[in-house]
Amino acid sequence: MSTSNSRVTSVLELRRKLPFPLRGLADLAYNYWWSWSSNSTALFRDIDPQEWEVCGHNPVSILKSAKYERLTQLLEDPSYLEHISALEKEFDNYINQKDTWVNRVAPQVTRDNPIAYFCAEFGIHESLPIYSGGLGILAGDHLKSSSDLGLPMVGIGLLYRQGYFHQQLNSQGWQEDYYVDNPFREMPIELMKDNQGNPLSIELIIRQRIVKVQIWRAQVGRVSLYLLDSNREDNDPIDRWLTGHLYGGNQETRIAQEVVLGIGGIRALTILGIEPSIYHLNEGHAAFCTLEIARQEIECTGKSFYDIEDNVRQKCVFTTHTPVPAGHDVFSSDLMDSFFAHYWHQLHLSREQFLALGARRLGDPWEPFSMTVLALRMCRTSNGVSKLHGQVSRKMWTVLYPQLSEKEVPIGYITNGIHAPTWTAPLMADLYCKYLGSGWKNHTIDPKMWAKVDDIPAEELWWRHKILKERLIAYTRYKVKQSRIKRGEEEQRINATNFLLDPNVLTIGFARRFSPYKRAYLLLQDVERSLRVFGNTQYPVQIILAGKAHPADEEGKRIIQRLVEWYKHPELLHRVALIEDYDIYTGQKLVQGVDVWLNNPRRPLEASGTSGQKVCFNGGINCSVLDGWWCEGYQAGVNGWAIGEDAHTSDQELQDRIDSESLYCLLEEEIVPMYYDQDANGIPHRWVDMMKASIRTNAPLFNTNRMVTDYVSQVYVPEISTSVKPILAKFKV
Ligand SMILES: *Cc1c(COP(=O)(O)O)cnc(C)c1O
């Protein structure tokens, strides 16, 4: 393979361990490309299916622990060997492909000066558990599509020793949280070293101590993701935990982590010899990076902060994700003093000048330091993540632009999408190969290609969907059974999982973080009615739930508990299931197998939402509040349902009643009758038509290839664009 010259130590070590014909697996194992290529999971899983599950679907770990005897046994199977060499070839072609979209439209973005994409979390795969939810998944999908499109990019994030917490429900339905150590050395990541073989490290001053931070690299196709880690023996024991947990700890932990991400991230790029052309701040967490870019420039040129400020701004772009003021990170001036007293001198700024960079209102000594304000002030462009969220953000931040009207506030929008190859079930991808063309993954933004979905015979779409649904149900039974065994429930309850859910029944999915604004309790507003709908014996409905509440979110935990109490009603015995410890794998099974995806957030708090988009690529249908992306995707009577339509009120209780009533009406009057309107062969033709519409209308819009091409033409390299949305404006205070 021509990638051999760039092979890193860990890959070489692993290759040496493997029998000759299996060595290509080592290269695949260290590049997450395998996770979205055509069906390579089987290659790793078949080595040892049980161990594959135990190690959390980690290909490096499975290869390292594989017995030689087993490996040689696999060698006896010509189809296994053929599969490996086919994938090796595909990988080689992918990595070395010259004719990419970016080479054609924006050749000025080069490997020498890539885009640096900063984010506090990345959801690449369940075997790299450094994500909590939507923000991380979006970041992961952004890197994958950038790789697919040939956009030179590096990611910058943190490598959390214990990642995000794990969830277990006790017998009272109360969420218990626990953490597990990530075995870095067994993971598909590589520690960056210098020529002498010592770990590369950078230094930061945090809480008056020097902290050394080392750098790992995960390979995501053509994109390198650099992850910072303070867990080194030469650090103070407290500082070794700086990168311990994602979104754990208090405000002090939070600011310390954001210093590592922002300031540490820039220093890491410098020591790695990477000179980005653009810095993309995905959410405000990384906004300190703008200060460090400025500091380096001041150090080099001796100029003042205000002289180079605009240079920094030309290189930085910002995406905001939070539609409520309380959701934005702010730090008290005390905290800022304790973390930055040594730093503002290096920018040649006074304390007041420095703190003003993050102040919503100038001249108020109690005004906390806002990461979003810093980002808005220091970035050339800013955008929200859906059309509605753009509006909400402009309104929220008018305070920063007193001379502008709300419409003129320079915050635009680029609607989120999902990475189609990651979220489309292999059975559906295979169907698209057959009817849309084998290169469908390269044309996901072409509506004409997606129009061919109408050519798929109803029977074929339906049987594939039925298989995916059966798979989801089998998986759900298995997970629920494991949880019941773990809780020590009685045998009868454990065996009852064999009858949980029914593949012939209309199946709803509801999975997301259990933040109160997501209103999982909406289903329970009218318990009697819910029992009539879900417990209906003639036209039953079933629902699969999953999601975590943040460890500090008592209200979220109470919502989970109420759901658990609800499904103990005997009518719901086989109709409701909750899968614990939601992660990417469970997410995939869910979005690929459900008939209907339910999303009922409190509008407009869902900045975009992406899980409903994943469902569309698998023929699922959305039933959602007109918030986030669904405002743009929904076509009445064509591709799904809208809860509450346009009835908006600021009275939350009233809104809950309106939306709950609307949800139950939709179920009773439209969704259930349409699903059970089946022909003699059990095919619901009207339903299948809507499945096709769901794919045809949504797929070309809500994928990350469309999203990344928008970022390229509107944000990263706007000079190539012919239709720039109004998100470029100078910041003036
Ligand atoms: C897609 C995804 C999310 C995002 O969910 P939304 O409710 O759409 O914001 C969160 N968690 C996981 C595991 C996902 O796959």
UniProtKB/TrEMBL annotation:
UniProt entry keywords in alphabetical sequence: Allosteric enzyme, Glycosyltransferase, Pyridoxal phosphate, Transferase
InterPro entries in the cross-refs: Agluc_phsphrylas (IPR011834), Glyco_trans_35 (IPR000811), Glycogen/Maltodextrin_Phosph (IPR052182), Glycogen_phosphorylase_DUF3417 (IPR024517)
The reaction(s) this protein catalyses: [(1->4)-alpha-D-glucosyl](n) + phosphate = [(1->4)-alpha-D-glucosyl](n-1) + alpha-D-glucose 1-phosphate
Gene3D superfamilies per the UniProt record, alphabetical: Glycogen Phosphorylase B (3.40.50.2000)
Source superkingdom: Bacteria
Top class in the EC scheme: transferase
Family that this chain belongs to: Belongs to the glycogen phosphorylase family.
Protein name: Glycogen phosphorylase
Organism, scientific name: Richelia intracellularis HH01
